[in-house]
Design a protein that fits this description.
Pyr_nucl-diS_OxRdtase_dimer, FAD/NAD-linked_Rdtase_dimer_sf, NAD, 5-stranded antiparallel beta sheet, alpha/beta, Pyr_nuc-diS_OxRdtase, 20 strands, flavoprotein, FAD/NAD(P)-binding domain, 488 residues
């Protein structure tokens, strides 16, 4: 069927096949897949097209972290170490960040959305009953959009502000100030030991701040315990004051431009020039009209394997990315966007759904093969289940652990390379349930582990995947050999 430009773009009617709330990476991916299926799409964005990831999270944080890690990598290699004679140029680091976030100008990404054939509406979108969205545009005008087939919520999340007396009045940093600041605070207190907390501690300590990291429990708790231990030790060696099991009970900042004082539950006090929150995320679902379709405003949205929302009558409301709380990671949200977009296309065309595990319309990886990496020094990378998670799920498992000094390639990569790797093996099926690496540069090992876990590659076959000598990836050979020896 040939479409006219007007019918394809839905001009003049306010009616589209799909309406997407949120133009971040997740919203853009579902838009692309819906357009590939021949559907008309309207995209609504209230801030910058490209979302949190592009301007205040993944992109700027990695742009800022790379110079810090590059200097550390050089210092690990004889000959290069002697060439590192000066301090990091923070002005150039911030300028590099600014280039990667295009000076917070979203023109390029907005044009990308439009070039896909979708219509972009700037303003705040709210669901107004089934298949209907009201947009309050930036100029104050109101517009109603109607969806023939689907409304997709991809509005992301925001930092959680803990219930600590005085915290809001102290005007704390969140990930936004932590990635868009152009000033290095002399003293920075970071609350939270998850991925954001450890990356920001690595970054700002590397740029010259004196950082104190306060964590309620061990660092990066969603990974294997050894990952948090190695990262904590490295942060401490770099000069970060890492305190686990310590949380603030009150915060005060009597002078808006003055220092912040934190009262701690161990009886002590901590003074800093800025305090940063890295204490979790809250879904941006409190003001998008969920109450008009029988759902709870401000809640995480429960979805099936096609990202269709449970509790909404009819097959029309989808939730993707952070808002469904499956995996608060950009790459997982983009994966959901692609999969859900294909499912919407199939439902619109009346085609059968392939929503069985690992099917074309199932987001199975969100349960079994989520990859994540933290760009600390050393890096921490993992995919799939930890040993504890696998045991709790009822699997009969074996763990295989090795230090990276077994691999000559690692020692050539960095003199005295220090790192650790673990495989979690399903003994009944002889496949991997999870893999964790900690060490310099291990993020580049993560995709091979993800393929092995998601593909459920039998270990007797995986041993035929030969790692090049001399590379850090040789660790695979030693892990598999250790497993073989123990099995024999």
């Amino acid at each position: 069927m040939t479409e006219t430009s007007e019918s394809r773009r839905g001009q003049g009617s306010g009616t589209y096949d799909v309406v997407v709330l949120g133009a971040g990476p997740v919203g853009q991916n579902i838009t692309d897949r819906a357009r590939a299926a021949g559907l008309t799409v309207a995209v609504v964005e209230r801030e910058l097209v490209g979302g949190e990831c592009s301007y205040w999270a993944c992109v700027p944080s990695k742009a800022l972290l790379r110079p810090v890690i590059a200097v550390s990598d050089a210092r690990r290699v004889d000959g290069a170490r002697q060439a590192v004679t000066g301090a990091i140029d923070t002005g150039q680091v911030f300028a590099r960040r600014n280039r990667y976030v295009t000076d917070w100008d979203d023109t390029g990404q907005a044009e990308g959305v439009k070039s896909s054939g979708a219509d972009l509406f700037r303003g705040h979108g709210r669901i107004d009953g089934p298949r209907r969205v009201t947009v309050t545009r930036d100029d104050g005008a109101h517009l109603t959009l109607t969806a023939r087939h689907a409304v997709a919520v991809a509005t992301g999340s925001r930092p959680t502000v803990p219930d600590i007396p005085g915290i809001r009045e102290a005007r704390p940093w969140t990930n936004r100030q932590g990635t868009d600041s152009g000033v290095v605070p002399a003293r920075l207190a970071i609350l939270g030991g998850g991925g954001v907390g450890v990356e920001m501690a690595t970054l700002w300590q590397g740029l010259g701040s004196r950082v104190t990291l306060l964590a309620r429990r061990r660092l990066i708790p969603r990974m294997e315990p050894f990952a948090g231990e190695l990262v904590a030790g490295s942060l401490s060696d770099a000069g970060v004051d890492v305190r686990t099991g310590v949380v603030p009970t009150a915060v005060r900042r009597p002078d808006p431009g003055g220092p912040v004082t934190l009262t701690l539950d161990d009886g002590g006090e901590l003074e800093a020039d800025e305090v940063m929150l890295a204490t979790g995320r809250t879904p941006n679902t409190d003001d998008i009209g969920l109450d008009t379709v029988g759902l709870t405003p401000g809640a995480w949205l429960d979805v099936d394997t096609t990202c269709l929302v449970h509790g909404a009558e009819g097959e029309w409301l989808y939730a993707l990315g952070d808002v469904n709380h499956r995996a608060l990671l950009t790459h997982q949200g983009k994966y959901q966007g692609r999969t859900a977009g294909d499912a919407i296309g199939a439902r619109a065309a009346g085609r059968p759904l392939d929503d069985a595990p690992w099917g074309d319309h199932a987001t199975t990886a969100d349960q079994h093969a989520v990859p994540q990496v933290f760009f600390t020094d050393p890096e921490a990378a993992a995919v799939g289940l930890t040993a504890q998670q696998a045991a709790d799920a009822g699997h009969r498992i074996k763990t295989v652990d090795l230090d990276f000094d077994a691999a000559q390639g690692a020692n050539l990569y960095a003199d005295g390379y220090q790192g650790h790797a673990r495989m979690v093996v399903d003994l009944d099926r002889d496949v991997l349930l999870g893999v964790t690496f900690v060490g310099p540069g291990v993020s580049e090992l993560l995709h091979s582990a993800t393929v092995a876990v998601a593909g459920e590659v039998p270990l007797k076959r995986l041993r035929h995947a030969i790692a090049c000598f001399p590379t850090v990836s040789e660790i695979w050979l030693f892990l598999l050999a250790a497993h073989q020896r123990e099995r024999d």
